[in-house]
Amino acid sequence: MPTLLRDRASAPRQAKRDKPSRRERRAERKQAAEAGQPASDAAARAFYVDDTGQRRIDPRIRARRDAVQLGHKRKRLRRLVVLVVIVSLGAAGYFLVNSSLLSARSVEITGGPNTSVDDIRAAAAIGPDERMLDVNERAIAQRVEQLPWVDTATVQRRWPRSVTISVTERKLAALLQDGAGGWLAVDGTGRVLGPTPDISNVFVTHIAGVAPVPAGQTVDGRIGGALAVAGKLTAPLSGRTSMLTVTPEGSVELKLLPRGTVNLGRADDSLDAKVGALRTMLAQADLRDLCRLDLRVPTSPVLTRDAACL
Question: Is 161 exposed, middle or buried (0-12, 13-18, 19+ CB in 10 A)?
């Protein structure tokens, strides 16, 4: 019994060894082709000899071969059609995007109280026939933000043919002497916004002692101390203040109403204490004939009286 099982198990391996290799089959086909004979029995069955003695291929084999060749042709045709469609769609899309059909025909602008729509349109510089693909949102926003009052600009493309621009304006923080008897609007960073607005419902501090610059530029950094002081003044203190003056050394002096000058020194870490001392002095001290009030050391205020002091 063990011998019989061993013989049955070895039979498939023996059959596999008896099967000719690929090289041997290739050599057999080549030899048969040279001799004009079929290479195997299967090849022999694919042909027959007709009544005239000529060797012809079996109709079933021919039909199968024609079907295979037709399938290959159809596959190549489908690939060609897909390629043509892709190329056509790409070319049509390219010409459509780069044509005047998708140009920025409409520019919708939302301005601000101090920035006109015409100024924004001129700064954006979007041509009437500019293609939507050529609309650089970031570059346009940077150009619009060069306008004095504009803090941030938002530019969006709205396909197929529209662009929207909206701006957020800077906040007025103080007024700076322009050197010609007028005043310039300044924001909290020292940027000059332009002439004083015609109408303003916000009371702001007036600053002197800093040279003016054209609108859209930032003034001398010494103005930072005055702006810091202005930000600390409450409504009652602002009502008693006529002007802030910045000295060449960077100290801040506060002109009181109706008279008197308060020297706050530099706007350093003790600014809160200085403003608190000023509030206390104005509420409790006798300020008759006040000339100068030195609060550079807030814990030791020095008050100078002089009836002739202006």
Answer: middle
Query: Hey, what domains does the chain have and what are their CATH numbers?
Result: 101-169 (3.10.20.310), 174-305 (3.40.50)
- How would you classify the pairing of strands 47-49 and 106-110? unpaired
Place of tokens 């000059």: 192
Q: According to the model, what pLDDT value does residue 165 have?
A: 95
pLDDT, tens digit (0-9, with 9 covering 90-100), for 283-297: 998 888 889 999 999
Helices (H) and strands (E) in the chain, counts: 9, 14
192's CB contacts (< 8 A; 6+ apart) are 148, 176, 184, 185, 186, 212, 213, 214, 215, 216, 217, 218, 219
- Position 1 scores a pLDDT of 46
- Tell me the C-alpha distance between 95 and 91, whole Å: 6
Tokens of 101: 């059909």
| 303-to-11, 123, 129, 244 alpha-carbon distances in Å | 123, 53, 70, 19
Peptide bond into 258 cis (omega under 30): yes
| Burial zone of 56 (CB within 10 Å; 0-12 exposed, 13-18 middle, 19+ buried) | exposed
Decide if 229 contacts 267 (C-beta within 8 A): yes
Rg (CA), the chain: 47
Model pLDDT for residues 195-250, shown as the tens digit of each residue? 987 655 567 889 999 999 999 999 999 999 999 999 999 888 988 999 999 999 99
State how far the Cα of 228 lies from the Cα of 275, in Å rounded to an integer.
Answer: 11
DSSP 227: H
Q: Write down the mean pLDDT value for the chain.
A: 82
Q: Assess contact for 160 and 180: CB atoms under 8 A.
A: no
* Whether the Cβ atoms of residue 126 and residue 107 lie closer than 8 Å to each other: yes
156 DSSP assignment? E
Please identify every stretch of the chain with a pLDDT value under 50, giving residue numbers as ranges.
1, 3-5, 15, 39
Determine the longest span between alpha carbons in the chain, in angstroms.
147
